[in-house]
Design a protein that fits this description.
Chain lengths: ~150, ~400
Amino acid sequence: MSASTDAVMAELQGRVRERVRAELVRHGASAALEDPALFADIDTMLRAAIERSQPAALLLPELLGDPSTWRLDTAIKYQTHRGAAGAPIIFVKQRVLMPLLRWFYEFNRDNFERQRRINQVLFACVQELAIEVAKQRRELQALSAQSVQRRP
Amino acid sequence: MKLAFVVQRYGADIAGGSEMHCRQLAERLSSRHDVTVLTTCARDYVTWENAYPPGTSVENGVRVQRFPVARTRNLKAFADLSDEVFDDVGSNPEREVEWFRANGPHTPALLEHVRVHGGEYDLLLFWAFRYAPTFFGVPLVSDRAVLLPTAEEDPAVDLGVLPEFFAKPAGYLFLTPEEETLVSTRAGRALGPSQIIGIGLEPERATRPARDVLERLGVPAEFVLYLGRVDRNKGCATLLEYFQEYIDGGGDTTLVLAGPATLMIPDHPRIRALGYVADDVRRALLSHARALIVPSPYESLSIVLLEAWNHATPALVNAYCKVLQGQVRRASGGLYYRSSREFQEALSWLLDNNAGRRELGEQGLAYVDREYRWPTVLERVERLLEEVSRRRSKAPA
């Protein structure tokens, strides 16, 4: 084997992909995955989606509407509806309770961050699939139109 | 040319990447240009506490003007503000600007100097967009500002106030093509003149460092190396997990970790933690390692990767970091991984293919020779400075 990064990586990734495919099939995944070429296409499509999962490149957040109804909110905002009377409550929350609970807050925040990443990746996968379906639908419509025109 | 280099910290004892980059360029350009470094009195990048005396001094042939930090960083308030702005990027520009102020170093005298005296310099070079002197300094002198963003794909680069900021400078110096793409994408428009410069490295000495310094430390003959801060943010927790899976699967090598640790290193017969190492040990490690592993998910340029190639040592890097993957593919100087399985396959390949491994290492060295020697780097910097100056002189007053 020639020692080129791309060539070596292509072989290694192919080997890993084949091992993953075999394991998935063995554990009861869809029979469609028994086709290595199809599995390679799926793998490529999902990897591309992950590559494009940065929030600014996602459509679903735009369509979901008011962010306060769906977005994970990990920042603690110290607020009160009691006006000046609420100041002691904010003081206690900020200066007494928060230092005591900080470790627990940070533990949860790390987990929420992971969940946020998973959500973004899933959004990206849905977007990628929607793009593929839309493209195929167009191609299908074009083919149908052609076959109608060819009919005597 | 009369140049000002604006950087958050400066000094021979400061190890930060952008600070070292600034110092190395300042020391090399000061013989050709009138260079003044404008920096703070801080040494600690966490608190920004004043440590150096304010005023002007000459350090290794470079004029350095230091300004006091007016307020140390309030870590708790900064962490809370980071949560707030990264949670809701773009929704509150004032809070995002406040994030840059809180990140610091808060040095009003430095900004005042840039505002009042900026016009006396032909060009001002600013390092690291995320720090206050650069974020607030560039807009004061944007017609003569050259930005070295040192941008990584971390949440800060997505802040909503950055597109406007990234479009302001008159020129740009990038560390990698990936960084240029990242910044131009975030700016949302074509940037002004730019060069990708990386960093310069001196060729390694002809004689290979002796192994005895490693034997004294109990480093085995066959090992793979991680060099740097052993930290979760550097991807080390994942590296340790993947490496143990590799060993459990029958792998046969030792992972040597060289650098101060901020996470618990497992007590494992095949993991050897050396802590901070001296320069001679560092060179010997880089020279004798079978491969260098770089697991970091965020890098704007991996200097340690270039150093490994400088010793013709190949690398295994985290593919989720586009910069690392890009560097390795351009050099054809190593392999990369996205999962534990790929890590195991790639590491096995590197350890089992002596000829292939050496070839990748040699290709890495050839890449450093081609792209990262000082004459090449300085020539690119000069080209950019001349281009920006030329455009400035042609621009209407």
